[in-house]
Amino acid sequence: MTDPPVLPLTSIAKYRAELAHHLIDQLEGSEVPAEQLLMQVRRLAQAAGDLDVVEWVSAELTGYVIPLSDNLDTWAMRLRRASSTELVVSESLPRIEDAILQTSAAVQHNDALLQARRKTSFYQDATQRAQIPDAAKWEESKKRTHQELIQMKDIAKTVRAELHRYVGDTFLRFAFSELASTIFDRHKISVDRLLRSATDANVVDKIPEIYERLANGTEEAISHAMDSCRRMIVAFADVIYPASNKAVTGSDGKEHKVTAAEVLNRIQQYLVDGCPSSSRGTRLAESLRYIWQRVSSGVHNDIPTDEAQSLFLATYLTLGEILAAVSTTEAVTVPSRTQATAD
User: Same domain for 29 and 167?
Assistant: First the structure.
């Protein structure tokens, strides 16, 4: 039996996924003591922030104390731990493992009493034996406790199945979260490398500044963050396609200005000249125009924090993809930064 993963100092999502995977193996593989299993599931629920599951598993570990909370009432009914009447008249519901042990002991006790009774009885016929008050009482008690044992074991199976469902869902939830995080982290490294190799500090150094302002969340901070996004796009354009007073011919056959003020025209022309896929170049140019419009609007008008964060990510990723789309090797081809700004 493998040990559960140790809580890491970094990726909590990875820890959750690994712990859930470990528990799936425990639930589907070798028999693990119920108490140990429940403790590990409770640890997973705590790490995942699933407080309703934490409360339920804690009740399975220590017993249900009545009156139950709405959450535990739902769990008790779902797991058939008790009827609505029992929840009213009872003071508590024992741990299911304790209940199984108690009921099993009662069955064994009744069996022993019945065996002892039969040894001292001359009656072998079941009908005649049932006529003896003590024998009839113990036969009825045996049937009742045996039925209770079956019900308790069914509850234990239901609890185990519910644990398996929760752990499986949690594994998928955080495994995909970790996968998405890994994909983004890898892409971020690639984008950072492209931006640093192809641009100057004015572009890359604006990123922490924007992030801090977005984390602030105030209207003024968001406005400044959107202005920083716009200035990042301007700095990006200045590096990859320096301004010129000479018009250039675009993909549509028309002449376009590429002066200092025509930021988007310069980036679009960079794509026209260097992107081997015209459709990809068009998509990126259109995406950046929309981003430019929204961040420009966000400078003067209130926009929600979540939209501002999305615009920042879109700006960052789109600039990185523009460089990647034009680059045919790891080294990004960038026009000379000493290019004349006037002809």
Answer: yes
Indicate whether 93 and 223 sit together in one domain: no
Q: Is 92 helix (H, G, I), strand (E, B) or coil?
A: strand
> What average pLDDT score do residues 22-39 get?
80
Higher pLDDT, 61 or 322: 322
Q: Yes or no: say if 47 and 15 are a contact pair by the CB < 8 Å rule.
A: yes
Indicate if 226 and 94 belong to the same structural domain. no
Q: How buried is residue 314: exposed, middle or buried, by Cβ count under 10 Å (0-12/13-18/19+)? A: middle
The CA distance from 210 to 208, in Å, is: 5
Q: Rounded distance, CA 22 to CA 26, Å?
A: 6
Rounded Cα gap, residues 153 and 158, in angstroms? 9
* CA-wise closest residue to 257 among 241, 280, 278: 241
How many CB atoms within 10 Å of residue 49?
Answer: 9
CA-nearest of 180, 157, 175 to 21 is: 175
Domain co-membership, 302 together with 222: yes
Structure tokens belonging to residue 242:
């320096």
Confidence category of residue 336, pLDDT binned at 50, 70, 90: very low
The alpha carbon of residue 157 and the mean position of all alpha carbons in its chain are separated, in whole angstroms, by: 27
3-state secondary structure 197-225: HHCCHHHHCHHHHHHHHHHHCCHHHHHHH
Q: What is the pLDDT of residues 177-234, one digit of tens each?
A: 655 666 666 666 766 666 666 555 556 666 777 777 787 778 888 888 888 888 888 8
| Strand positions, DSSP E, the chain | 64-65, 92-93, 244-249, 255-258
Are 170 and 222 in the same domain? Answer: no
SS3 (DSSP) at 121? coil
**pTM of the predicted model as reported, rounded to 2 decimal places:** 0.47
What is the C-alpha to C-alpha distance for residues 76 and 82, in angstroms, rounded to an integer?
A: 6
- Structure token pair of residue 305: 């924090």
Q: Residue 249 carries which DSSP code?
A: E
Task: Give the whole-angstrom CA distance, residue 215 versus residue 211.
Answer: 6
